[in-house]
Amino acid sequence: MTESLHYVGKRLTRPDVAAKATGAAMYGADLALPGMLIGRILTSPHAHANIVSIDTSKARALPGVAAVITHEDVPKRYFTRSVMAEGMPPFAYEGENQDQFILSEKARYMGDWIAAVAAVDIYTAEKALDLIEVVYEPLPAVFDPEEALKPGAPVIHDRWQGNVAAVIEHPFTRGDLEKSLAESDHVVEFSGRNSRQKQAHMEPDVALARWDEEGRLTIWSPNQNPHLAKKTMARRVFGIGEGKVRWISTIVGGGFGARMSFGVEPVCALLAKVTGKPVKVVLTREEDFSGYNSRTEQRQTIRLGVTKDGTVTAIEQTILSDSGAYFSHSGSISAVNMQSTLGLLRSPVVAGKATVAYSNNPTSSGMRGYGNPEGSFVLQQAIDMAAEKCGMDPVEFRLKNARGVGEPSMWEPVLLDSCNLDQCIKLGAERIGWKDKWQGWGTKKEGRLRRGVGMSIMTHASGAGGFLLEHSNAILKLHEDGSAQLTVSPCEMGQGILGVLAQIAAEAAGLRYEDIHVMSGDTDITLFDIGSHASRSTYVIGNAVVDAGLKVKEILLARAAKRLDVTAGELKVEDGQVRVKADPARAVSVAELSHDAIYEYGTDGQHITATGTYQSVTHCPNFQAGFVEVEVDTETGVIKVLRFVIAHDIGRAINPQNVEGCLQGGAAQGVGYALSEDLVIDDKTGKVLTDSFATYKMLSTLDMPEVEVILVEEPAPTGPFGAKGVGEPGMTNVAPSIANALYDAVGIRIHSLPMTPEKVLEALQSNRT
Amino acid sequence: MTKEIATFIVNGGEYEVIVEPHMLLIDVLRDKLGLTGTKYACGAGDCGACTVLIDGKPSFSCLTLAVTAVGKSITTIEGLADGAELHPIQQAFVDKGAIQCGFCTPGMILSTKALLDENPAPTRDEIKSALAGNLCRCTGYVKIIDAVEVAAETMRNGGQGS
Amino acid sequence: MHRVLLPFEFAEPATVGEVVELVDGQKARVLAGGVDLVLKMRLREILPEKVVSLQKVPGLDYVQEDDAGLRFGALASLRQIELSQAVRTGWPLLAEALGSIVSVQTKVMGTTVGNLCVGTPASDVAPALYALGARVKITGVDAVREIPIEEFFVDVGKTAVGPHEIVTEIFIPRPVAGSSGAYVKLSKTKEDIAKVNAAVLLTIADGACTDAKIALGSVAPTPIRAMEAEQLLRVRGMSAGAIAEAAEAAAEAATPISDVRSTAAYRREMVRVLVRDALDKAVSRARAGGGRS
Predict the structure, then answer these.
(1) Which structural domain, as residue segments, surrounds residue B140?
(2) Mean pLDDT, rounded, for A116-129
(3) Do A253 and B101 touch (CB under 8 A)?
(4) Do B69 and B119 lie in a common domain?
(5) How many CB pairs under 8 A join A and C?
(6) CB B18 within 8 A of CB B5
(7) Max intra-chain CA distance, chain B
(8) Above pLDDT 70, what percent of chain A?
(9) Could you tell me the CATH number of the domain that includes residue B71?
(10) Does domain A141-196+296-401 have CATH number 3.40.50.300?
(11) Contact in structure between B132 and C191 (CB atoms under 8 Å)
(12) How far is CA C201 from the centre of its chain?
């Protein structure tokens, strides 16, 4: 790209933030419609119980109550909470268990949805909830996925005997594993598990629903994938055509993967149908923590074989995932875990298998990184163990074995055409001062406070091109004043995608950034799009926007050529003007062209607009190296993160300020994931004990360590202006690099997240004995 | 006392509202006065998203009984901008990338205002301490602290806003 | 789980006398800052029929010092006391303890007396008040009584306040010359309730330790004094060995539990580490500053 760019690469102010700064931005809970009722949901106090009877008579008799519903009132149609399931290729879709109703006919976790009320206000709705009388027959419950798979364990779903929700073989398993390991000079094995990290988006779940006189349902909710959500709601939940549902994604107060699933929308829609009125359902924070959606707990073992010169010979990953009471993303997450874990390094022999179990824990789901942070915690420690066996510097080991350009990506049929991981590793190592700070394996450190450095590498997708449905559309339509409407359907959940797409549109079409008005989120107005997940929006939707922008530019050039009596090739469009390249003073504004095209009294009238489409065939992986320096207090076990350096292969940062913010935010979640965040479930009752920010500990301003971001910008051949995705990767390298730094500092490894001081101290003490 | 008509002083204006003792200030602001800028995120005083200024002091509106705020001067996020002109704190947040999803933003801005009203030249550490009761899940706080530094400088140099 | 509160009667009397007549500690509860009460009501952990506000009673938000010591009233906020120049100069141990509560809003809204009346052994304020020998003034319908802070905490969530009584004042005597203290706290993140917290106050005269107070939080049903550890220091002084032994004795005095924040074993070990750290800090502060508390 030799031309200078006007908007791409600039720290431009996002178009959506001023409204957020003034309080004018309307999130779901801020919306109201005339005659609206408030809905609240009754949850099960038992982790596993038959519902013997539900008496709603007292609740229904309460003045102001419009409806009380139970499982007896729901359509007997199963669906899966994950709306992403609709984007899967047919063979994978078969594996997505459709296992829940709008309200459960049996309580399968403490917090399961049993009944719901719609009333004139929230006070009445809650009073009505308290009047519903449910008789439960408690059943034995199981909270450990290993126990759930054992013969004789309580059966959670009759259709899935043995509580096996899914078994997934890694599709790129190859070679003779045992033979290869037997022939390797060294074999290391590391087992570990992640915690049920909670997305904990600041905006609690909410939905507003209304059926109109034509039998069409409109839903307002903070969903990341409105077109898929619309389809799931139409076809799966209600058995109606897709055209009967209009999904309007509201301004989203954080997603992090939680909102790739239904929240309260199905219940809300049914209450609206039954009452014939608009209904808004709200959740409390406690209900959000207890309800559903936390990161799936995955217990993994990795075996890694190497030659003595540090070449990987074989790698195997086995996973046991806890789906919780229902199936949502736990299957696809296990698959993506294996892809990112087993596809990062070059290895002739690869094996992967995941078993997904049901349990009476709340339904787990996808969270930022979607299997990658889960796998990396185990893989990157196994890599360091292998490097140690070979006496190799962890940096050198990774440089030696990480795949590069021309080699398969984590989705093997797709070869890497852009990979700058080497540069990320080198720049990150330099910035943290690796040469001086890493003193070799087995270096004994002294004193109460001991420092260590550690690293980790990762790859992540920019969309799911090649393995899931990838299809994005964008409409660019000019107004008479030369400004343009960009209609797209990502999910703006804070990552700044609306501004980024406006920058891309302006650059591609030759318009001015400030003249682009972005419209998104309404499935009646936007064209089909998968939405925002898998860090896809900049890459895939960006390319659709480029397509639309170039088409609009073509129209402008053609019309201007006629007007100025030159050929289109002699013209260029930039900053809202079409100029003759050889004589820039000869120009016509986009505004004039647009206006005159509409107000054309002959037969050459046109509303200048174009639709861009993009379907990615590659997931254009991004790469990242993370380096951390920690200080461990050997008397308290407290790990203090002194500095974290991220070097990210971004291709091109369309808006560097956005990218930095995304990576800094990811680092904060990563440190929490590594050290303090833990959704604790009582293993006798299934109660979520950490159901508030007081007990589920995320970082505050005072906990955030120093984070340095290095952007490696080598444009990716297929990315819009060379850009790759970055939405999720901020999290992935943090916990593994801290784990490896912990080993460097004090010679211990922790096998479960979070790496609390209690665990560190215990490991230190047993290490001494 | 059960139900009564009470006068709330919000952003310099007086509003008569029918209020009952069990109503929370956040719900009176949002549902009765239509000031939905104040956000409900936890209802437990753990996250600061619901922060408003009561007689200039940052308070959790989710834990304030509305009846106890009657007659006091309440400032919500809607009270900061001067027509179309953003308050310097709002402008700094907008310019410095301190706003991602925006849900913590109103509370964060009001806690910032309380800080700068008392301490016009805070250090980074003082900024962190002033915002320690405000959680953000998106930004990692880095650009929020940058924005507060910029806002403080603007306001010291006579930028608008009070 | 609930989003809104259940209805209740609300009274805003203008005198303490009226307040104590109305409250009964069960169905009629007193409201000071509300940070604890309102949340517990929303969660249905407390279901009062009547809430009696202190906020309209004038003259309860004082923070005053005189020669005898420091007094603050029932409505003095945590923030007021944290920022009080008198407290920072004369009772720095208390200011340090308050500084460990990092949420500004919590300190603005919450009263120090209210913090104590929650009756949690994890109170950030209590260990400092134990070390400083605070006294609690409790006003009832017919009588006013004053008890030492050690008698105030009775059990988890239970204090010595009777049904028709409220706490109206805390008195903290002026630390003697040569006092030097430190407050320490361990928690998962900085904005968090303590796993373990401790306050120590040493009296150092002519380089020797003549008195020691060690108060522990979060490791028993109430905050406690580690009496044996204190005695050890009085007898053996403040050498590194004595401090280590005192810390060991303090750990033995603790009866911690395992809960969502930490384990009993870790907490016990941390008593030893934190008490030692706090004592070291108090000693080095004495050496540096020549008498601080």
Answers:
(1) 88-156
(2) 98
(3) yes
(4) no
(5) 57
(6) yes
(7) 49
(8) 99
(9) 3.10.20.30
(10) no
(11) yes
(12) 14
CATH code (residue B112): 1.10.150.120
B interface mutation test: which of C105, C108, C185 has the most B CBs within 10 A?
A: C105
CB contact under 8 A, B43 and A285: yes
Pair (B98, B45) in one structural domain? no
Which of A661, A692, A701 faces B143 most closely, judged by CB atoms? A661
Among B34, B57, B79, which residue terminates a domain?
Answer: B79
When scoring C75, C104, C109, C115 by the number of chain B Cβ atoms within 10 A, the one with the most, hence best to mutate, is C104
pLDDT tens-digit readout, A381-405: 999 999 999 999 999 999 999 999 9
Average pLDDT, chain C: 96
Which chain B residues contact residue A254 at CB under 8 A?
Answer: 101, 103, 137-138
C290 has pLDDT over 80: no
Residues in chain A: 769
The count of C-alpha atoms lying within 13 angstroms of the C-alpha of A140, restricted to the half-sphere facing its C-beta, is 8
Answer whether C193 sits within 8 Å of A694, measured CB to CB: yes
Q: Are residues B94 and B132 in the same domain?
A: yes
Superfamily for the C179-289 domain? CO dehydrogenase flavoprotein, C-terminal domain (3.30.390.50)
Structural domains in chain B (count) = 2
Q: Which of residues 631-660 of A touch B (CB under 8 A)?
A: 657-658, 660
CA nearest B2 in C: which residue? C9
d(CA C136, CA C144): 10
C14 touches chain B (CB under 8 A): no
B82 touches chain A (CB under 8 A): no
Domain ranges of chain A: 17-23+471-614, 31-139+203-291, 141-196+296-401, 404-460+620-769
Residues B100 and B39 in one domain: no
Residues of C in contact with B39 (CB under 8 A): none
Whether residue C270 and residue A284 make contact (CB cut-off 8 A), yes or no, is no
CA distance A302 to A384: 12
Residue C292 pLDDT > 70, yes or no? no
Across the interface, whether the CB atoms of A700 and C260 are under 8 A apart is answered no
Instruction: Calculate mean pLDDT across residues A572-582.
Output: 95
CATH topology of domain A17-23+471-614: Aldehyde Oxidoreductase; domain 4 (3.30.365)
Asked if A203 lies within 8 A of B30 by C-beta distance, the reply is no
Give pLDDT, residue B158. Answer: 87
Indicate the helix (H) or strand (E) that contains B124: helix B124-130
Give pLDDT tens digits for A29-39.
999 999 999 99
pLDDT at C293 over 60: no
- Annotated catalytic residue A728: yes
Q: Collect all residues of chain B within an 8 Å Cβ-Cβ radius of residue A496.
A: 100
Q: Is A284 on the interface with C (CB under 8 A)?
A: yes
Q: Return the domain boundaries, chain C.
A: 1-54+61-174, 179-289
B45 vs C9, C51, C105: nearest CB: C105
From the candidates A214, A728, A758, A762, give the one annotated as an active-site residue: A728
Alpha-carbon Rg for chain B in angstroms: 16
CA-based torsion, C121, C123, C124, C126: positive or negative: negative
Q: Does domain A404-460+620-769 have CATH number 3.30.365.10?
A: yes
pLDDT in tens, B78-95: 999 999 999 999 999 999
Q: Where is the domain boundary, B15, B50, B79?
A: B79
Instruction: Return left, alpha or beta for A566; rule: phi > 0 is left, psi -120 to 50 is alpha, else beta.
Output: beta
Q: What pLDDT was estimated at residue A2?
A: 47
* Amino acid in the structure at residue A659: V
Of A208, A223, A200, A219, whose CA–CA distance to A492 is shortest?
Answer: A223
- DSSP string covering A264-322: SHHHHHHHHHHHTS-EEEE--HHHHHHHEEEEPEEEEEEEEEE-TTS-EEEEEEEEEEE
Give the residue-averaged pLDDT of C17-25.
96
Mean pLDDT to the nearest integer, A337-351: 97
Closest partner CB to C39 (pick from B2, B63, B133): B63
Is B160's pLDDT higher than 80?
Answer: no
CATH number 3.20.10.10 is the correct assignment for the domain at C1-54+61-174: no
Grade residue B2 by pLDDT with cuts at 50, 70 and 90: confident
pLDDT value for A1: 43
- Cβ-nearest to C38 among B48, B65, B133: B65
Are both B33 and B54 inside the same structural domain?
yes
> Looking at the domain assignment, is residue B162 inside a domain?
no
